Structure formats: structure tokens, C-alpha cells
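Milestone M4 deliverable, item 7.
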Amino acid sequence: MAKNPAPKKKFPVPISTLICLAVAAPVGWWTFNTYRKWATFRTIEVESDRKLAAQQKRNTELSVVYDAVQLKKFTVCNKTPDVITVNWVGAAFHDGKAVEVFNSDHCQDFKPIVLDPGSDSSVLLRSSQPGCNWDGSVFYYAMRYTQENENEERYRIYNMVGPYQGFDRDCYTFR
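Output delivered:
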């Protein structure tokens, strides 16, 4: 009798499983590397958002200072029925790099500014004397003025100092 050949031993793992493993291994590796890159970029993005929020908070806090040091032209307006005489002016201004101070007491060319009722005047000084050229730019001011009334024998002296806010239509208004 003829012997039947021994049945072939079957491979313990089906070929479809091997094909799936061959495809799944590179796909798994690609997925892992892609996730790692995404996680790194996500961490960078979260850190950038945190830094941006901190900078925006600082900018909000510093905007008050920025607004306070904005240069405005120093102008005075007389809304009183009296004559106003500005006898002395001091001003702080900057050129974008350093803060400068103008003091009219140090300038021989400075003449008191006389304002009749209802008039206004820009405060500035053009002079050949060193340190006495001032274009009227100001963010902090000081001044001494007198208010002279026809009905009173004496005039009143005022000293004013503070940040120049522009007041009534960018004009320091005497009332």
C-alpha cells in the first residue's frame, strides 16, 4: 500500500496576520513620531500663549505710563473775566531718548505771558541762549501765575504743578 504522504504542517500564524504586522509596524512608528512632534509643538504653542498673555498684561499696566508721558503742546486759555499773567513755567519733556527740563527762570528771553479775558497762547521759547529753546512740548508742567481783577486792589498768586493732561481741548484753562 502506498503511504499517504504526511500532511503538510501548517504555519502556526496565518499569512494575513503577517501582512497586517508588516503594515502596522511602520504605521505605528509613524503615528508615534507624529504624536511626539505634535506634543512638542503644542508645548511650544502653550508656552507662547502664556508669554503673550503676560506681555499683554504688562502692556495694559504700562499703557497708563505711556499715556502719561505723551507729549502735548503747552497752551494756556483764559476763560476768566480777569487778566492772567503767567510769570514762570517749568516743563518736563522728552526727545524719545532722555527726559529734559525747561525752566523759564534760567532764560533771559522769557517774558511773562499776559492773557486778556477770552484769549489763549501757546507757551514756547525761541532763544539763542543755550538750554532755552523749547517748542512747547510737555508731559509734566509747573507754573506760577497771577490773576488780576479790576475790582480788587491785590492780585492773587497761584502755583500749579502736575501731569499735563491737555485739559479743555488740549489747553490749560484758567477758570
